[in-house]
Fold these 3 entries.
Entry 1:
Amino acid sequence: MQETKEFDKTNRIQEHEENQKTDFFTHINEIGSIAKQAGGINDLFYEFAMPHLEYLQNRLSTNQIQTVLFACLIYLYNGDKITITRLANFMNYAVFKVLVYLNEFEILEQKRLLHIKREKEDYRYSGGHEQISFELRFTTIDALRKGYYSESAFSQQLSIEKFFVQVERLCEERVQRRQSYPNTIKNMRNLLKDNEHLLFVKKVKALGVNDDTTLVLLRFFHYLVNMDLSEMALYHLEAIYDHSSEFAPIRRLLQNGNYILLTEELIESTCSDGMSDTENFRLTDEAKDEFLVELEESFFNKMPKGMKLHSSIAEKNLFYPEKTQQAINELCSLLQSGYFDDIQKRLSENGMRTGFACLFSGNPGTGKTETAHQIARLTGRDIMPVDISGTKSKWYGDSEKMIKGIFDKYRSCVKRCDTAPILLFNEADAVFSKRRLIGENNNGPAQTENAIQNIILNEIENLNGILIATTNLTNNFDTAFERRFLYKIEFEKPDVKTRKEIWRSLITFLSCEDACTLASRFDFSGGQIENISRKSTVHQVLSGKAPALEDIIKLCNTECLTGETIRKIGF
């Protein structure tokens, strides 16, 4: 034996008691140091590393070789994955000998101590080779460092919210191939077993379905609860399997309507243009009501992302030409909670559609969007906003599903809210324009846009709530949309009288005469007048005095230069 590999055995044994009291990483460091000095994992290593291995075995509930493998991985960890070749070199093993312990690595993975990363999962088809490496879990290492690691501590007696966090981990680790399918099933069983106190788990177990079906069902609930997605395509379900052939029997059962989750009415196919869509499925309302009782307060009553509460809308005085004001007053009265419910009931009794689809059209800056907000405030209705023009670029590919998802979320809101919210399609020009002819050069985009329009037309037709759409279109409006809107209000540019009122309301120090001068001289929209009022406020802050009429006229001239051509009157 070389001198560099000799040990002071007496000192090592004497240090054993003290080492028992040291922290987790001290034992890891000792194991790594001994392995380096011993030239790998061999008899000499075991002779001196046993006290540290026994300590870790007791802490981790692992056998000897599992403890050695895990300790070596932590010792080698530098923030990145550890390849099997690097581990073999450190242990002074051939790579093949490390591969013999794959079962042991999988047990460590089940204990949530590491990830086995298999790159090129489809190597059988590509002709490549599967590259195995290992990733360590920071949360587990941190728990070990703090002294509270327990294999079951991560999944036992969880709240329903934390349970679904674990369901997300279960599903995503499988999709990302960080867990094998058998390990995923084992982890799922353990998760359900450890949380039998939850009503959700009791309901799942009461179904008596096999593990494969249970995992599919959990994936549907994961999509709904964790991702806020109501639908799942077949290719998303297929993602948990290694090969299409493994999913093929389930695919056939789903498409012919014989899959057990369909026959038990837990899931259903979606509809497209009135036809059953056998490529996309969703949980039934009955399944959501039955299985997610525990989430009623924390999940079903939560507001969708971006929902604007009516109580958060600031009061704002708006001024319109007389004809527009009358139409807005009428609509506001109809949407008051009591009247609206009575009207819907009467329409339903007469076999008519009960939804209220309203169109606000007109030039920019005429108050369409703000009017929708003020109607929401006055009628006590929250707003679910949809900015079509701002999100259209994201729709190519999954466009139809995203649009369906918007209406699904709105339907869900209407169902659980005492007062139906307003679905606000702001700046909806992009989808309300005339449908495009499908030609050779624009086949894809035209088909996508037309499909989106068809979905919206169908949804408006079956609307059970309130939709307000705003648009600047005047000449390119699709007549099919025009027929779907029960109330159509044209927002014209304010006349002189209305402009005068807007000037006085926004710049309160203006005299009647000055307001009349500005209203007569500049043919501005309400939005443009608001811009000038904001600039005058800035002027007042900087100068310490209110701007004179001449200063405001200069601001008006600037607005004329930066905006569209403004018709000046007089002067």
Entry 2:
Amino acid sequence: MTMEVRYWSFFALGLLSLMLFMGALVLWWQARTLQRSQQRLPGWAARSSAATSAPARRASRWIGTSPRLQQWLNRLPGMARYDRFLEQTGWPLNSAEAVMGSTALAIGVLVLTTLLGTPFLLAGLAGLTAVGVAQATLVWRRQHRARQLERQLPDALSLIARSMQAGHAFSSALQIAGQESPSPIGDELRGVFSEIQYGESPNEALSHWAERVAGEDVRIFVIAVRIQSETGGNLAELLHQTAALIRERQKLRGTVRVLSAEGRISALILTLLPFGLATMLTALNPGFMAQLWTDPLGVRLLTLALGLMGLGMLWMWRLVRMQP
């Protein structure tokens, strides 16, 4: 490949990356602008934190996105699940913005690393790694929000139970708990109450919540309420018992997390050690490490090593991960 062809190829990739990035930025800016405009309307702020129904909430996340792009993405396999995953992060990000941003990031890193003299194969791996880091950030955010919900759920259930014992109906108790509880559990409970206000039954609204969030404890609460609605009984006492059960589950998870701390730290050290050593050797002797990406045999060895390291990281993660 001549230098001129390579130059125009990199220019085209860079231009495509810039266009995708600008498209994702425009979608994000339009959604933010519309949200700020809506919050200026009287009484909207109280309703905007919780959409009137589950379909309306999902539709509101696509405000500012091209309908054709939305329809095309919805036809792709697994895209609905990915959009639900993005919703569980709690960030105002839909799958169109995530796909465009990830593509722009991958192409941008590919062009940048190639222009710095890195072989095309390693540059492609760098682009994929950048996308992987971005997706790992989303996974971390989803897990962090789920842990927050789980920590706040027992206190919220106790508050709902005490409100019912004071004479409030279940829906009113949900409203009180939503107003008094911190975010994110307060936002979610206000969303459930809003759905009930707009015509959904309590069971349907709670089922939508269980589908929307990532947490087994929420599903335990929803199942308990659904069973009680069919069999009858003291719902306030049931909620107290459910809160106690969830607290015991959280204590058990904390104990297991402490016992597995050594394995998790070892996995983290073994994962970061090769990259740290490679960075140090590159700084001390650049010519020695350059053989790994300038020599064809070095490129093959480096690719094999990265693949085996990926398998090793997956194996260690599976060993130290606690199943819910």
Entry 3:
Amino acid sequence: MDSLFNLVIMCGLIIASLTGTMGRSLHIENEVKTLLKHYKLTGPEWVGKAVFSPYLGKADNTCTCEKLVLLSMLNVYMDIFSDMMNKSKEKKAVLEELKKSVALLKANKYTKEQAVWQQLKEIESLEVRKKSTCTIQGGALNNFRSVYEVASTAGQVKKV
């Protein structure tokens, strides 16, 4: 009896886990449709105006969070060295040498991260709060589900 009960519980858990994301995806789809109707973004002029989808799958998987943080630090060092050069000309040669070293390091070891960094800056620079941003909001809303699905599976650990 215990083994039958355990089997039923196991099957229930498997079914719940398999339908959990599908149910959430359907819920999100319904919410998006509601918003599209409410904001009158269902016309043909909104089809194909993807805002974020062009960025999906563009980041190289060898680009890590740590390397992005390091690139950010290197960028700040470039700003610091430039600021120091502007404040004092007596160590200009040393600071220029440091800037050259950082630039060379970035060019040789951080090219993929620089491309991702540029994409992040482009995404963050999107104007989404102005009154004239209906096109961006409509396009973003139209491709929200696909972005959400990619984002929800991206953090999953792949089992080998």
